[in-house]
Amino acid sequence: MSKTITIDGLAVPFQEGQTIMDAALVSGVYIPHLCHNPEFKPHGSCKLCTVNVNGRNVASCTMPAVEGQQVLSDIAELNADRLALTQMLFVEGNHLCPACEKTGNCQLQAVAYYLGMMSPHYNHFYPQREADASHPDVMLDRNRCIYCELCVRASREVDGKNVFGLSGRGIKTLLVVNSASGLLGDTDLAVTDKAAHVCPTGAILIKRHGYAVPIGQRVFDHITIKEVQTGGSDE
Amino acid sequence: MSENSDRSPLPNPLPQAGEGAAVSPACDALKKTRIATCSLAGCFGCHMSFLDIDERLFGLIELVEFDRSPLTDIKHCGPCDIGLVEGGVCNAENVHVLKEFRKNCKVLVAIGACAINGGVPAMRNNIDLWDCFQEVYCYEGGLECGQIPNDPELPLPFDKVHPIYEVVKVDYFLPGCPPSGDAIWNFLTDLLSGREPKLDYEMLHFD
């Protein structure tokens, strides 16, 4: 007899040790998220997956599932919060979709589509951020980084290399690379590394593959991130 | 579509435009919706996409008439029902035009990526304006015999390009680079029918 939690009135079974997000993903219940990727240890930083559990708002990617939890997720109040968080991510960086190779495959963009974001709403920061083209096969464009640490986690946990890290705090947070010169080309990152392929935005791109799939035929051009992330796709 | 739909489009509705005093009250029901369009720091791509509604233009022209727009060559926007603004704000003239639109249009619509987040022109926001000018006008392959144009009639450029909602209140946003002709058609027909404009998933895109 498996244990269950309730998400928006739906009974969702879980195994001991799973988080609310784990249980939801297994059952095909979509909770919007950006910094979470089921292949990695949860980070809990983007807060997009915030749900209401027994009256309190918590990050579902880090909250352990406990028998009998009453979870609210797809409700107007939380979706409004998620939209505001997404808009803040857009104005905090330089996210100019028409000029980005990742457009159509970008999870930040896809979440914005899913939440019906018509404008970034807030005043833009247009921050000064550096791009790094020093690596022969991998492009790093910090303008599009949302500090999810997926590349950091992938490099440490899967590649065993420790190529990426976050430095600084708050609005001064910066994605740094582990080389004396500070350049990606001087690290031991290989194009086959997991870290080169987990970026949810266009901050880390594989060179010379940008337009292999034309705009208009990309993952989120026709189906929502909800369908992609709960429909058995490996995206 | 509006993120602030609880607010009315304009605090003080402006008088109806069009035939004005020449129209008798009995003809009011037939009065066409007056639309103005302009491109600020944009490429007129959204206007081109607007033309992609093709033969539906004939149906549209039964319902609307154009104030300032490339179709009329009227230089200043008069009282209108709907203003469609393409492009972001990159210089002083853009601000004057935008404020004139806001003053005269009951409903102001930001159309396209540049009006909504600065778009491709905003890619210069992280480059010093002087460096930008030197690159374009002075270095190899430059224009104007190596001089930076400084005619007093040229509008004063800003150091950064901004979306129009950072300058005036915007009632509706229609994203896309450009939004497709179908998206523009759906949006306009919704608005003209008094419905809250809504885009299908595949019509909402930022690229």
In the CATH hierarchy, the third-tier topology of the largest domain in chain A is known as Alpha-Beta Plaits
Biggest pleated-sheet summary of chain A: 5 strands, mixed
Q: What count of helical segments of chain B does DSSP give?
A: 6
Q: Which strand-content bin applies to the residues of chain A? A: 15-25%
Strand order of the largest sheet of chain A: 2-1-5-3-4
CATH class of the domain at 31-124 and 158-203 in chain B: Alpha Beta
Instruction: Look at the structure and give the mean pLDDT of chain A.
Output: 96
Chain-wise SSE layout:
The complex is a heterodimer of chains A (235) and B (207).
Chain A: E1 3-7, E2 10-14, H1 20-26, E3 50-53, E4 56-59, E5 70-72, H2 76-92, H3 107-114, E6 131-132, E7 138-141, H4 150-159, E8 164-167, E9 174-177, E10 204-206, H5 219-222, H6 225-230
Parallel strand pairs in A: 1-5
Antiparallel strand pairs in A: 1-2, 3-4, 3-5, 6-7, 7-10, 8-9
Chain B: E1 33-39, H1 45-51, H2 56-63, E2 64-66, E3 80-86, E4 89-91, H3 92-104, E5 105-111, H4 113-117, H5 129-138, E6 157-162, E7 172-174, H6 181-192
